[in-house]
Amino acid sequence: MSRTPGEARGREGTAAHWRDVLSSRRTATAGTPLALFVDLRQRTRSSHWGPMRLEPATAGSLLRRPRDVVVGLRPAVPGASTGSWIQGDVGWDALRRPGGPWVAAHARWFAELHGIAREVRALSTYSDLGEWLVLDSIESSLLWPHLAEAGALGIPLVGTRASRAVALASRAGSALRIEREADGGLRVFADVEIDDERFAPERVRPVGRSGVYAFHVVDDHPAVVLAPAALDEVSRRMLAEGGALAIPAHDAGEFLQEYAPALARRLAVRTGAGVDLPPTAPPSLRLRVDARELDRVVVRCDWTAPGVPARPFGRSEGDSSPDDESVAAEVLDRVHDAWRHVTDEPLAAHVVFRGVAAAEFTTALLPALEDIDGVRVEIDGDARRHRELRGDPRIRISTVESSDPDWFDLGIQVTIDGRRIPFTSLFTALARGRSKMMLADGAYFSLRHPSLDRLRELIDESLGLDEWDAGPRISRHQLALWSDFEDLAHESEAASSWRAAARTLRDTDRVPEVPVPREVRASLRPYQRQGMSWLVFLADHRLGGILADDMGLGKTLQVLAALAVRRARGAAGPSLVVAPTSVLSTWVEEAARFVPDLRVAVVAAVGGLGAHDDVDLVVTSYTVLRLDEDAFAAREWGWVVLDEAQFVKNPATRIHRAAARLRAEVLFALSGTPLENSLSELQALLSLTSPGLFPSARRFREEYIGPIEKGKVPENAEGGAFRTARLERLRRRVRPLLLRRTKAQVAGDLPDRQEQVIRIELSPEHRAIYDRTLQRERHKILGLLDDLDRHRFIVFRSLTLLRMLSLAPRLVDPAAPGQSAKLEAMVAQLSEVVAEGRRALVFSQFTSFLDLAGVALRSAGLTFTRLDGSTTGRGRVVEEFRDGGDPVFLISLKAGGFGLNLTDADVVVLLDPWWNPAAEAQAIDRVHRIGQTRQVMVYRLIAAGTIEEKVRALQQRKARLFGAVLDDDDLFARALDAEDIRALVTE
């Protein structure tokens, strides 16, 4: 490529320029160098009335008139002769403007020096200052490091003549010297040493408060030495006055007794013959204590010594001698040792103690401080009014009937050393986490006693903070909590109805057995009779609860039998059962079969509630309840029973709010899975069945969900003591109001159930599609997990895509090549099942995969029945399968998860795993339930090396959470969160 001559020259110039810029040897020395004239000047007048002038000092004038000396500063430039410097035409104003002919670094240094001097021309009354600055008047401490930098920049400090020597020393120090005069008076000198050389006081002058200069005569020529020095005020004033001070004989005693000790604390003092300083008393720390108010004590601290003004607490070097500082440090060490054992307030010049802290100061800290040598305490007021109560708290608990039948007023009395403690103040202090509490007369006590810690936990559970004004109350449903109160108290007294319920429900085995009414035409098993009695007992005491038996153990029959008891006792008003639409027919059929005398009405549409006063039981769906909420809320119901209560596990939904509005004697929830993903679901159900058991959803999250599910700190990790204690406490609270029996516990006559996980290897084409999609979706998901709540829909859409690809590529792309290995395995497995004369249920989350499964079964010559959410005539389809027409029943997991009794089959095939193990358990329970006589086989088909394996692991962990709370199992698990999702898509 050709370039213009200008471009070529530009490139050559650039090449030379980069070497110049990057060279380590390059220095900015272009220009005229500068020096700083440092000249001794002498003040003089031409006449008595004339203006003061500054003239160059001579050796003779320095000796004759040393008090008239000052030092002037101005810039200089090289002279014509080698090594000489002259004033030339350089000035301060010219150096402060950019672009001059001088070395740039030099000019900048002079401009900064001018700024440090702040253009102070303290001798402006002089008639010939010109370009001179007066060193004596520069106050800034920045002067000395700036002067020290001059040498590094190549700026010499020189006199106006070569014979006038100038030196910059590194340090200077001052001391006082006291000499006795012949007439009995004293003379005090400010001795100064500059770099270890002592100068006569009259030859030294201060530079502001940050340095000194000394002038002397060398070989009949004036010379000056500059040095930084931290001058105290006395030394500075004395040097400004000529370096010496005369004390008349008649004032010598006063000086030695009152002034000299103070000076000796701040300066090094030397004494001559005949001068004796009195011994210096050590300083003491004075504490002025204002205790005039009962709950407020103010402490002010300072240092005092005889003959010396009080020194503020906290002042540092320069205010006292090294000996004084050593004594003060020892005193402070002892004070700090006593201080930190009593209070967390820092020791300072001004400290205010309030409330209990004030009482602790006067009773525990103040006596200890008074015993320390070197501490002087001055008290204003009565600091002995406080006292500590050290006895063990005695607690008395009582409950009395209140105007609200669902609540009891809770009485709590605490006494310590015979003093009755006001409850409201006590609970406020406990709830706010305070460590001590003070009473109105100044007595105080510790709140860290174990019984008070436990009391705080119990009260905190029994009521929310917004209920303090009404006084402490305890809900009828908090039966286990009352037992904890009784264990804590030295005395307890409960209302009779409360005590009866609490005593009986501590153990569900002690619930009085209720005879099965003759109207019930069924032979109830022992556990079913116990469940019926439990329901009746809770209702008798106006307590709701959750019947959480395993699927297939006859929860519907237990409720119908309990309702028959209610009818036989003549209870008025109908009860209400709310169930999924698909289960309504089950309630009607079983009521007609087992309790035919029970009058049942079905409300299957909005507006169909009507009067229905002449029936014992109204059965409706969750959909109708939600749409006709006001009508159902307006009625007074006997019992309300929520079947498949997982439908109302989310408090944010309209159906939950509709259920909460129902007015009833009691409310029962039926669910084999009262918690599926999180403890919040269990709390949501209990808030309906047992309102008041837990104060609020927020408190439940703090008290239980955080410690039990979110085990991210050591105390909450699996096996952690705190988590274990919270889990056990939750179980105790819930146990009286939740009855759960597993098949293994109560249905020993059920045949065995065997499960087999079959891992399916994907075909090469299928594997390539899956892995390619996994890499893309993994990158997307991991980038969204930091804000999962906001991006949850996108994340789960990606996870669903991966789950569908694990089954068959055609679920995502109809044109995708290859067959589904899982469908081939399903057909092979079912061919054997059908050949053996057995029948199977086949479940999948995806109806589109059921479509493919149906195609594969037809190709293999296997007939089937199908049920999913779009199926009409659900009951007819189920009966067709029961009649034995087809050996295979394809069912979507959502449509077939409840309300089906399909014991005609004995094989279950799960084509794909679901996040929630409870949903799969419900599906299996369609077959493995009361009435099954054959061994049940369950086959789980898992695509190897896919997200399905991760989902299977997640299922097992969620199952442990269910068992940890509801079953006799101490394992732990968290709810589905970002970490779970990360594990699903990473290696």
Describe the structure.
By secondary structure, the chain is α/β, with parallel strands linked by helices. The protein has six domains: 35-162, no CATH class; 172-271, no CATH class; 284-385, no CATH class; 388-504, no CATH class; 507-746, Tandem AAA-ATPase domain (Rossmann fold); 753-985, Rossmann fold, CATH 3.40.50. Strands 31-32-30-33-34-29-35 form a seven-stranded parallel beta sheet, sandwiched between helices. Strands 1, 2, 3, 4, 5 and 6 form a six-stranded mixed beta sheet that branches. β23 and β24 form a beta hairpin. α15 crosses α16, α24 (764-782) runs antiparallel to α25 (788-807) and α30 (947-966) runs antiparallel to α31 (978-985). The longest helix is centred in the C-terminal third of the chain and has 20 residues, at 788-807. It starts with a helix and ends with a helix.
What is the level 1 CATH name of the largest domain? Answer: Alpha Beta
Number of domains: 6
Q: Structural class from helices and strands?
A: alpha/beta
CATH superfamily of the largest domain: Tandem AAA-ATPase domain
Helix content: 25-40%
Quaternary organization:
single chain
CATH topology of the largest domain: Rossmann fold
Query: What fraction of residues sit in β-strands?
Result: 15-25%
Total of helices: 31
Major sheet description: 7 strands, parallel
Rg calculated over all Cα atoms: 48 Å
